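Record Glycoside hydrolase family 31 protein, 818 aa.
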Amino acid sequence: MDENLLNPELLANKLIEEEEEFHHVNNPVTGLKPIVKKYLGSVASVEQKGNKFYFTDGEARVEVTVVTDEIIRVRLAPHGVFLEEFSYAVPKLQPKPYVFSLHESENEYRVSTNTVNCHIRKKDFFVSFSDTQNHVTNEDAVPMHWEENVQFGGYYVFCTKSCHSEEAFYGLGDKASDLNLRGRRFKNWNTDAYSFNWNQDPLYRTIPFYISLNEGIAHGIFFDNTFKSTFDFGSEDRTRTSFWADGGELQYYYIHGPHMMDVVKRYHSLTGTHPMPPLWALGYHQCRWSYYPEAKVRAVTKGFRDRKIPCDGIYLDIDYMDGYRCFTWNRKYFPDPKKLVKDLAADGFKTVVIIDPGIRVDDNYWVFKEGKEKRYFCRRCDDYFMEGHVWPGRCQFPDFTNPEVREWWGGLFDELVQLGVAGVWNDMNEPAVFGAGTFPDDVRHQYDGFRGSHRKAHNVYGMQMVRATYEGLRKLMKNKRPFTITRAGYSGLQRYASVWTGDNVASWEHLRLGNIQCQRLSMSGVPFCGTDIGGFSGEPDGELFTRWIQLGTFSPFMRAHSAGDTKEREPWSFGEPFTAINRKFIELRYRLMPYLYSTFWEHHRYGFPILRPVVMQEQNEINNQARQDEFTYGDKILVCPVLEPGQLNRRVYLPTGTWFNYWTNEQSEGGQEVVVPTPLETIPLFIKAGAVIPEYPVMQYVGEKEIEEVKLNVYFTEHEVNSFFFEDYGETFAYEQDIYLEKKFIVAGKDSILTIQQSMEGLYTPRYENYHFNIIGLPFKASKVIIDGKEVKELILNEDKTLSFKFSKNFKHIDIIK
Ligand code: MIG
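=>
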């Protein structure tokens, strides 16, 4: 090792030089470089206040907060004074009585919980984290540092960690790159990225949260800073991972694993989970820019019913409005919106309308007048209004970071809700402005009382818009669950909305990318996500569209959408055989709806993602780091989309365990790749042994028919496997008062017997009592089935060798005996 590096002063100088090279930051006022970076010195003292520890080098201070047993927060105050605590991502830190302690040794201070140690090295202020086995999971490579911002005040803040040779990185939301982010640098600055390319960055959302996986052990870093931020995962320097921001506080949460699932779950414990969506929102959605006039909307919806292709959501894009003015209707195209929405509802369609943030400057337009009178629109720093051109022409923009503005905005939906509109689609909320891209930096925001410029508010603008929408709808719809979707957002947006990945392209590359983006969003705390099926711009052929429908069947949010200048894009637009296959998959979506809904509940209640890349299943398997096609949908169904034209078969990796091919019931042992035929009619789909997969009968829309019988597909296992099945009213918030039913199944098999046990929790009673069992993979011929002590009379051995029987009561214990 270089002798000089042992001298802390020389080391610091060397690091300063390196860092300046690294970040290339010019003085924004003079345009000259370099601005002097300052680094933490050595630790002079420590002070404790409750669960917070304050370390100082004499001037700068570092706060270490024990958030939970597994989460530690670090904050830096360059001049010793911390900013007031406020975060849009983390609504409140729940102080719970955790056990923790502070130790001092010759070289370091150590704050320890039962699970994690946070070390602060005395000589250079390096912060590191380790587990109870003294395994260091995360460590500084350079002390935390900063630069003064001459123009705006405050600091550019930097944190640089070591990056290990085989460390992989996941997360950051919708980034358009390979699943493993290693070797790349990313920026977070919400951007309208029409027809984005592979590796284009930044995109629509800011999720400054990543998961590191090193030697099979995972941890997470959530850098809760809304300014423009950058993450570098060993790109500039293979040995370093850095993150920095153009302002605000260096504030990050270290989230302990060791499992990736733990990290995601704990990230959700900070930022919240997605509320339960209305059940219909898990159905199929049809969208287009735009369906108008009214006759077109009626023709499209009729097209679904005539062809018996299920559909729940129908969208109205910007052309339903009068001159693109939000909260108005174009009466030429839509003379009687109330009747239209009502007729659609009677036919099972829920109407979702688009809303943009730009409000047309027009004194004869009530929304503008009200906003102007109440001073709700954003202003420039010298007090002019922020104006920009968007669809309606010259616009001003509500400051959604002001709680009073959010309240007002939420109320504006009153008329739409009265009309029966069931959901709101929030677009252009990066915010996007024609020409300029977005707002200038100097625009001021109220920021819930913690005022700041657009530099601070830009990345949360969209999230606060959809928050206003969601909260407003929730009030207006009384106890009904609203459906909202947003394009832009920041960490925590999942408390208010689902998302789509924005303006993608009808290409095979985008199908592949969309699959990665949905998995990545799921791991990044955005569970309810989907892509524009078929691709927004450009023309898919029938094959690409069908392959996309097949992927979309297993996206938490399933919507086809297309730009206005493209050919018609309904599931039947490509003729046969495509229509029939599209129908079959959309039907599958509806059959598996109770499974998806249960998985959603698991997310809502426990913070698990809905889609899980195989690396989350088996993080110790190094080859999984590069696997990004196959994923599990919940924990029982493995999906592998077909991502190339003309592909007649493909390789699929099955994680360890036994899997059943969904189409053939053939069993395969996992822990290896298998080759699966992929004619256009199917994609590789596998069910985990021991799973109980509930199925509803196919319906044309949610609630079309009363459910009389539920099918339970039970897959044989030699081990004990748990499954569960969640049900409730599907449209109210009664689940918050425990009005739901969580059924838990335990399946265990041997040579001559298969046992299924059921237990229940919750206060909801489903209306049906009939179960149709389908037992798959029994290794013996069943002679009898005994349910709660009674023998079942009629056993049917089907041609495909599955065993079926029915039972018309809730059950506790089933034995299937040889
Ligand atoms: O400037 O409302 O991403 O889904 O159809 C384009 C029209 C505005 C962008 C959205 C897209 C939507 C389109 N919008």
